[in-house]
């Protein structure tokens, strides 16, 4: 059996980044992905000339000297895979009853705008931004984030705790938690640390790829594929990881077709709990099993629309829209997390074709929308009746589309030429996301704490990389994968 230096299970951004860096360093890498496309949640699927990316809408830390750029530079890809900055004056638009507010980059600017809007709370607003700013110091090395003494004080806090502490009025609370779909939790559930870490990136701005996320994924994938020593395997599910005689090391990976591959080291990019299924729970010490006893984040209903004969720029810009039919985000989430279609609605939408023209047939546009939803509801429907499942998900999608038409894009429905709707069960099927979880673990204080998993497994030569092992998102996982590469090789990425 041919032996590799590293076997990587999963071609999400974590697996691809680590694999590409190791391949570039001359290591012999083999990488497996059960999907027929690379990228995990960041894969690009194509229908009728439209290219859709289900898992990345906008990203962070892509500027010179920041984590994404540093990694691309290390691979010599920084000129090929480029990003455009979204409008610093406003790339997130929060809309609800009596509110239409655009959030941009630069804490100072945001702080003074909000202080003008809420003059009685100027002092507290300043304090809020000073807390967020502290988290910004570790944006290029996220692993250090949870070791940072300053955050201990806030580890058990939710965002709502901070709002209550500062006695922020409801309208200000809505603006500051307006990007809640970025975490898929309302303020009364969201870890303050995660909110602060996420919003910290807003200081230097948000990005979108010049062409498409597919270019970033393919750039990394090809680094591994084109390296003579390495081997890439799409449509290849790993069903078993075998241990050595004293159960301290992983020695081989077995595919669904019964093929066996051996390596000195193993890197697991799938959900870490799944690694327990592949190895056997009995080989995981109880203490470690506790680390893996996390709750999953919510899944989403995703709507991908292809549009024709419409000048979408008349109604939308490059920004993301966060819409809440009711300004009480906490109660809106309760409705979305319950079974069924919510009465009141929150949604996140944007038009990727207004950011890049490489995504659609000429003269067309694409619009994507998501809303948090209950996994079990759709899983039960699907197992009982496929027809009923489709009926309900399409009805839910109708509600999102009707809302976008009513509030943002008049006449939208008459321009739809392609409509694809996914639920949490779709993510479970295509990218092995358990319960369709969008961000790995739930991002509440119970699941984000100093016991967070990180790279180490109970086996000397197996490592975790991915959303559930540390933090979700394109840039954080790239940063975390760069850390792993540095630990494994002693080489520096930045
Ligand atoms: C709707 C939605 C919107 C999002 N929006 C953004 C955004 O705007 N910006 C942002 O930065 N992040 C966003 N995210 C989060 C981001 O997409 C994820 O955190 C990130 O892509 C996860 O990467 P990962 O490396 O953890 O791997 P994943 O993407 O989870 O991929 C893991 C891969 O491993 C494979 N795998 C697992 N087990 C096996 C096995 N046994 N054999 C073979 N292969 C296996 C899976 O098939 C999968 O492809 C969003 C997520 C969702 C769902």
UniProtKB/TrEMBL annotation:
Keyword Cell cycle set for record: no
Gene3D superfamilies, sorted: FAD/NAD(P)-binding domain
Record flagged with keyword NAD: yes
Spans through the membrane: 462-485
SUPFAM superfamilies for the chain: FAD/NAD(P)-binding domain
Keyword terms: FAD, Flavoprotein, Membrane, NAD, NADP, Signal, Transmembrane, Transmembrane helix
PANTHER family attached to this UniProt entry: AMINE OXIDASE DOMAIN-CONTAINING PROTEIN, BLR7054 PROTEIN
Protein name: Amine oxidase domain-containing protein
Source organism: marine sediment metagenome
């Amino acid at each position: 059996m041919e032996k590799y230096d590293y076997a990587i299970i999963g071609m999400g951004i974590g697996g691809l980044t680590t694999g590409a860096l190791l391949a570039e360093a001359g290591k012999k890498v083999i990488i497996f992905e059960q999907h027929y496309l690379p990228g995990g949640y960041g894969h690009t699927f194509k229908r009728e000339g439209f290219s859709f990316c289900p898992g990345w809408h906008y990203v962070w830390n892509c500027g010179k000297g920041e984590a994404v750029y540093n990694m691309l530079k290390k691979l010599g890809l920084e000129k090929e895979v480029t990003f455009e900055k979204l409008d610093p004056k406003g790339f997130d638009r929060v809309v609800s009853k009596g509110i239409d507010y655009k959030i941009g980059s630069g804490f100072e600017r945001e702080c003074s705008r909000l202080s003008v809007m809420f003059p009685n709370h100027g002092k507290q607003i300043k304090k809020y931004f000073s807390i967020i700013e502290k988290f910004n110091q570790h944006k290029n090395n996220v692993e250090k984030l949870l070791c940072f003494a300053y955050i201990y004080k806030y580890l058990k806090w939710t965002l709502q705790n901070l709002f209550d502490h500062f006695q922020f009025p409801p309208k200000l609370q809505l603006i500051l938690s307006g990007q809640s779909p970025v975490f898929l939790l309302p303020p009364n559930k969201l870890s303050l640390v995660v909110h602060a870490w996420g919003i910290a990136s807003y200081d230097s701005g948000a990005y979108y790829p010049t062409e498409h996320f597919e270019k970033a994924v393919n750039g990394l994938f090809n680094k591994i594929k084109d390296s003579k020593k390495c081997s890439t395997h799409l449509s290849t599910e790993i069903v078993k990881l075998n241990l050595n005689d004293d159960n301290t090391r992983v020695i081989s990976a077995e595919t669904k077709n019964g093929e066996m591959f051996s390596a000195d080291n193993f890197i697991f990019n799938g959900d870490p709990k799944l690694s327990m299924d592949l190895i056997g729970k009995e080989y995981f010490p109880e203490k470690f099993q506790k680390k893996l006893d996390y709750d999953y984040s919510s899944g989403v209903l995703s709507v991908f629309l292809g549009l024709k004969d419409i000048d979408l720029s008349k109604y939308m810009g490059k920004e993301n829209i966060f819409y809440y039919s009711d300004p009480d985000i906490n109660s809106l989430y309760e409705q979305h997390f319950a079974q069924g279609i919510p009465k009141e609605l929150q949604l996140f939408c944007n038009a990727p074709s207004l950011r890049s023209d490489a995504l659609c047939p000429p003269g067309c546009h694409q619009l994507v929308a998501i809303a948090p939803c209950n996994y079990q509801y759709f899983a039960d429907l699907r197992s009982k009746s496929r027809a009923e499942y489709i009926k309900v998900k399409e009805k839910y999608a109708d509600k999102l589309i009707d809302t976008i038409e009513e509030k943002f894009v008049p006449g939208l429905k008459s321009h739809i030429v392609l409509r694809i709707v996914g639920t949490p069960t779709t993510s479970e099927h295509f990218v092995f996301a358990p319960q369709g979880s969008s961000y790995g673990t739930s991002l509440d204080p119970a699941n984000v704490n100093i016991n967070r998993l990180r790279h180490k497994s109970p086996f000397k030569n197996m490592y975790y990389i991915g959303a559930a092992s540390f933090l979700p998102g394109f840039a954080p996982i790239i940063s975390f994968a760069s850390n792993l590469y540095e630990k494994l090789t002693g080489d520096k990425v930045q």
